[in-house]
Amino acid sequence: MAECTPLSQITNTTSSTGRVGRSWTQRQHTPYTRTPRSRCLTGQGKTVPLARTPQAPRTLSRIKELVNKTWRLYKVTPLYKFDVGSLRKYSRLLSAHLDAEYRKGIAVGVESEVADSARFSLFKGLKGASGDSDAIEITVKAKPKSGQGESKVVLSAILCSVQLPDDAFLFPESFTFLPVMMVKGGVGLTKQIVSWLEHQFDCHITHMSFSPYDLSWMVAMWGGCVPETNSKPVEMMYTVPKEVEGLSRITMTIDAKVCKELWDSIRDPTNNRFTEEEEAAFIKSLESHFFYHFKVKLTAMYLNRVVTSIAVVDSSGRIKFYSDDHVHRVLRHITEVAVEQIQQK
Amino acid sequence: MMEREIFRKILGRLRKDELRPVLQEWGHLGKRLHEIDFSHSKHSVHSYVVKGFMKNYPNGHPDAVGKLDLLCLQKHSAKRTWAVYHLKKEQDSPPNDVADPKEFEQRLRRELGVDFKKMELCVLQHEKALWVRICISKGSKTKPMLKNATYCVHFPHTPVLIVTNMKAATAESIKQAFVNVLGYCDIQDIRLTGRCVKSLAQLSLNKYSQGSFSQYRLNQVDLQPLSHGKKRKRTESEESITDPRIVFVNQKEKKQRLEILNDTFGPNPQPTLEKIEYKLETKFHGNHYAPGMRNQTGPFHCRVKFEGTSVIEGIKNLGKTELAVVPLPDHLAKVHSLAKNHFVLQDKSKANKSVQDSQT
What are the contacts of B288-292 at 24+ separation with CB within 8 A? Predict the structure, then answer.
């Protein structure tokens, strides 16, 4: 019998409940044959015995840097011959590339600062399991054009992977798989860095976009996470199809407390995984509440943006974390979605 | 000089083709207006205007800035969000309405001069309404700042006032001044906001002649239908597909739906509203999918916002394209006759009934 841990004892890792057999959850007309591990709310999967030790305080503070900033998400195919020991070499190469681009006249006039130096470094604290590669951070600093003043960070990019699923690519040792890239910085500079990474490591980096189905999963899973302080109302923004002239969006905002009540009533507390039925129940109950009052079919609209107490995600791939305790959970799911999207290509 | 910058800022809001007519109406340039070549760049045209004004009035003119600002606002009133206020009157009190802009200005200056020593006031008439610009300075020595200007539109002989950019510090005094000048006893915010002044005026003034009644207001109804014979009706089909093999099965339902929508919304274009907000405090009604919520007695707090370029038209189109089930509920379909766009939906119960009675 599988051991089930009640939700009230959520820790970073728990003992694995034992994976459910493939045949049991295989359904014919659903996109998933097996409930993906990221639906798992307690963050289990591979046992990571070492992670039981409390994390050093400095790793926690780095996660705090991710919170309350808007990041653009990209998906990255495996990097060929990426060596964690050669970070300095990569920093030099990237700086030289940015300098060359500037001299070519590509970046002239666009930014008031001249990108000066790029630095690769390890970003600790974002690994989910021992099978994951270390997260890498790329910081680009720039000096103001007038030549005076200190150089400040112009772009910050983080390549990470949080709890890769087991059956993701079976690739040889020379490949490093960091499927998620979060970037905060100017568009032109991002393009240059992306093209350099693609050229250097023979990978393919594209914008990550979320379908309404992905967004509805996110709001269903995280709608019930209400931290003690700073809880935000759960918001779902729908865009109206173009045939309806005059109306462009419908936004539904639900108070955090009542949303948690709804979430608790739907959830089966004995099961650690969030199932498709629960997601459907959550979304459909909200849409039918809306339909009762307005007789408008929300199911026909496109879910565009989702706000919960722990994160804001929109369909163009922009994300903002609100709570540092839950960054791992969000990134785990994003990693899963990124891997799926890469596999589908 | 400060005035030069203020002029440049105001002129910068106008497009190139609007400069000449506005400056003509402004009138403070006089003959120098003809000396300006408008084919130059905007920046140089602004410099000419400022120079011309300085030559005409070397010591400045108190109303020049206000008048120019107000004229620019009339051209670009959709850039600001306006809120509608309703003036309340005691029964049988004598009317004190003003239609003349000069008299209105005098009365307002007297009222506001009691509270504020330094202010700029300008009243202009534009399309049957009085547009007022009030700019109050904080200290006695500082000049009034451009961004603190409050703009109001009043339609003479009506209890309607449309206001934008009212600052919290001076709101009460300005509201009280209008109440006193126009001879009313109170002013109330009727929770109607938007960007188009004309639509807001239509919604608040013609509250009882919207929807299908707008046909009567706009003289579109034939008052003597029996005096001439019936014309042969031309059956128009919306689909221009002429292939005879295609048969539309749901023509009847479609026709019924369009008829119901026409009855509720009327055939005329709807007044434009940018946003309609609802605050829902009813019980949860999604119990079919969430049986655990059946025992909940408390209200399910949520807010719903419809946004777009013309939301009422959009709601009509939702019904047309079958994304909404017709007939629509009253609080959605009859927004054109309710003169507000912030609503609170509550369950009908004894406790709420007393609240509703006290509000009406």
Answer: B288/A285, B288/A288, B289/A280, B289/A281, B289/A284, B289/A285, B289/A288, B290/A262, B290/A265, B290/A266, B290/A281, B290/A282, B290/A285, B291/A265, B292/A264, B292/A265, B292/A266
Q: Place B298 in a pLDDT band, splitting at 50, 70 and 90.
A: confident
Size of interface A-B (CB pairs under 8 A): 139
Whether B301 has a pLDDT exceeding 50, the answer reads yes
Q: Mutate which of A285, A290, A299, A307 to test chain B, going by most B C-beta atoms within 10 A?
A: A285
Work out the minimum CA distance from B28 to partner chain A, whole angstroms.
41
pLDDT in tens, A264-321: 888 877 777 788 888 898 999 999 999 999 999 998 899 999 999 999 999 999 999 9
Residues A194-236: pLDDT tens digits?
999 999 888 999 999 999 999 999 998 888 888 777 788 999 9
Check CB contact of B280 with chain A, cutoff 8 Å: yes
Measured between CA atoms, how close is B12 to chain A, in angstroms? 24
ipTM given for this complex: 0.84
Strand ordering across the sheet containing B129-136: B119-126, B129-136, B150-154, B160-164, B82-88, B186-194
A245 and B323 within 8 Å at the Cβ level: the answer is: no
> For residue B278, what is the nearest residue in chain A, using CA coordinates?
A252
Looking at residue B41, its pLDDT comes to 87
Query: In the numeric block, which tokens belong to residue B128?
Result: 């049957």
Dist. CA A266–CA A278, nearest whole Å: 6
Determine whether the interchain pair A250/B304 forms a contact, defined as Cβ–Cβ distance below 8 Å.
yes
Better-scored residue on pLDDT, A153 or B139: A153
For residue A234, what is the nearest residue in chain B, using CA coordinates? B302
Nearest to A295 among B312, B321, B324 (CB): B324
Closest-CA residue of chain A to B269: A246
Q: Mutation target for A interface from B302, B312, B332: give the one with most A CBs within 10 A.
A: B302
pLDDT at A35: 57
Residue of B278, B296, B306 to mutate for A, most A C-beta atoms under 10 A: B306
Q: Does B7 touch chain A (CB under 8 A)?
A: no
- Give the residue with greater pLDDT, B40 vs A40: B40
3-state secondary structure chain A: CCCCCCHHHCCCCCCCCCCCCHHHHCCCCCCCCCCCHHHECCCCCCCCHHHHCCCCHHHHHHHHCCECCEEEEEEECCEECCCHHHHHHHHHHHHHHHHHHHHHCCCCCCCCEEEEEEEEEEECCCCCCCCCCCEEEEEEEEEECCCCCCCEEEEEEEEECCCCCCCCCCCCCCEECCCEEEEECCHHHHHHHHHHHHHHHCCCEEECCCCHHHHHHHHHHHCCCCCCCCCCCEEEEEECCCCCCCCCEEEEEECHHHHHHHHHHHCCCCCCECCHHHHHHHHHHHHHHHHHHHCECHHHCEEEEEECCCEEEECCCEEEECCHHHHHHHHHHHHHHHHHHHHHC
Asked if A265's CB is within 8 angstroms of B303's CB, the reply is: no
**Residue in the block written with tokens 């020593």:** B117
Kindly list the residues from chain A whose CB atom is less than 8 angstroms away from the CB atom of residue B291.
265
What average pLDDT does the segment A97-117 reach?
67
- The answer, for B330 touching chain A at a CB cutoff of 8 Å, is no
pLDDT, residue A304, reads 93
